[in-house]
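Entry under discussion copied across for reference:
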Amino acid sequence: MQIDFGERRVRIGDENVKVYVFVATPGYSRRLYVRPFRNERQESWFAGVEGAFRHFGGIPEEVLLDNDRGLVARHNRVTREVEFNARLHAFTKHWGFRPHACAPYRARTKGKDERGVGYVKKNAIAGRRFESWSALEAHLEGWMRDVADQRVHGTTGETPIERFRRAEADALRSIAGLSPFERARELVRKVQADCVVGVAGNAYSVPWRLIGESVRVVIAGDQLRISHAGHEVAVHQRQAGRFTRVVDPVHFDGVVGSRSKAPLTTVPACEAVGASELLRPLLEYERAVVGRW
């Protein structure tokens, strides 16, 4: 399987956002797995590879990857001696595949995926606008299933899904019983005055009534689950980057100016405005001054 990242400016809501598109391509079938990220850091590479394993339903023997510094510590151009990143070593050992770095300055050594990245940019993303990040993710999920899997490939003369089912699916090692590389982590966080908890540089909303309370945060794979007094109070998609604010409007029910029917939003923390600025209903202030306004 070959993996790579491509960059593309995408209109999401009212912003022109730089999206890092992870693309994985099994060498025989030419199926594609596509996932957008906000950065190209090591954790994004790992999340992309794990997502590809789940999408294809198994693990290949070898993964051909780029010489990104989050993956490869050193690659001698002359001797071809490769020193992989220590965490990549742990990651490959966990999943049981062999990493292979493409030759420096010879991107064509993983040409299947290079062409796949270009195809994704032009066919799946170019000229499109999305209301939210989740809308982009949903579009790519449908595009993989309805377009990329069903097209007749120019090289093989077959549809990738047929070729995969016939000869590649059974060759992959099962992922049954294997947990994500990043095992579930448990944290304790105090809810801030703006109804959020901070995790790894990002902010995630919780019901406003929990301001000042301590909550339990469980990070497992791509999800972040928050509970209080034994009850789950929020579930969010884990953000790979930093300085992002994920807000569920339902968490502000009862706050003046809140709109609980609005969709969950993911915005840069510096731009987060709205209901979170009005933290309490007027009744709270009436009680504080012992009377009515």
Observations:
- The mean pLDDT is 85.
